[in-house]
Design a protein that fits this description.
Number of helices: 15
Number of domains: 3
CATH class of the largest domain: Mainly Alpha
Strand content: 5-15%
CATH architecture of the largest domain: Orthogonal Bundle
Strand order of the largest sheet: 1-2-3
Radius of gyration: 25 Å
Order of helices and strands: HHHHHHHHEEEHEEHHHHHH
Helix content: 55-70%
Structural class: mainly alpha
Number of strands: 5
Largest sheet: 3 strands, antiparallel
Amino acid sequence: MTEESRKMFEKVRAFLTVYMPKQRGLSNNTVQSYKQAINQFLDFVSNIRKVSYEDVSFQNWDALTVNEFLTYLEDERSVSASTRNQRLFAIRAFLKFARISTPELMALSMDVSGILTAKEPKKAVAFLSEEAMAVLLKQPDETKKIGLRDMCFMITMYDTAARDCEMLNLRLNSLDLNGGCPKVRLDGKGNKVRYVPLMKKTACHLKKYIEVFHDNNSTKGDAWLFYTISHGKRNQMSDDNVARFLTKYSAMAHAECNEVPQKVTPHQFRHTRAMHLYRHGMSLQLLAEFMGHASVVSTQIYAYADTEMKRKAIGRCQTGVDVIDVPDWQSDEGVIKRLYGLA
């Protein structure tokens, strides 16, 4: 290994083991994602560009090589535009970190930062109507212990719009169910903490759940709120466990109401709660805080997604009252012109 290669690999180690997890406070999933991107790039340089792995140095991180790597991902690995962009962001971030202590890398870093991202197709936000969500939430049999647990998990996840990992990280001391305003502390992405109010009905369900699942010997504040038992020991519930019971209840709800997808994911709970709050008048700024978004830009997907609100607004402009049946604006030229200010 050359001296230049050693310096480069030391920077990689510092970036992945110190800077990202400790200085930036990023989640383990984020660190793993960046590690995968850097590994793929180094493998490309070694296997495709035929540079001995131990001889890879910053000279191989030039914009031309990075562009070839991205093209390779698109053409040979058939990755999506979002995956391709994530790999580019990881390389940019590493070079930006490296240039802090090694100013001579500034030009290299700036060249790579000028590489354009691929255009990503906009995906529709998948969410359930209030009626469909109500059908889904009533599927667990709360008279049975496991049914009570699953119901409380689903209700709390919907009420708080929590991410799956935030739900699984809940501990007993994350809850404040006493007083006039029950709330929960969620430990979000990047170790960001936010407090979310709970509906009183949700708080009542959680109190009942705690009475059943947390006896006097397990009421330590740092005990996992939702857990599974293995070899007599209480362990943090896994996301695989959540996926299993959501798949089960989704299929049951779909048989009762075909508006419910056959497989509902935890993130659809989050999107659904956000859409319902937005439709009931919560501002995007407040919704961004509620969801734990770093920027309101992330929250704007809910405004773009809610075509139903746009249709009703157009109807009120036409008649002065709420309308029940509005023609599909996507196939109505006049409506499209009014919607986008062309008429």
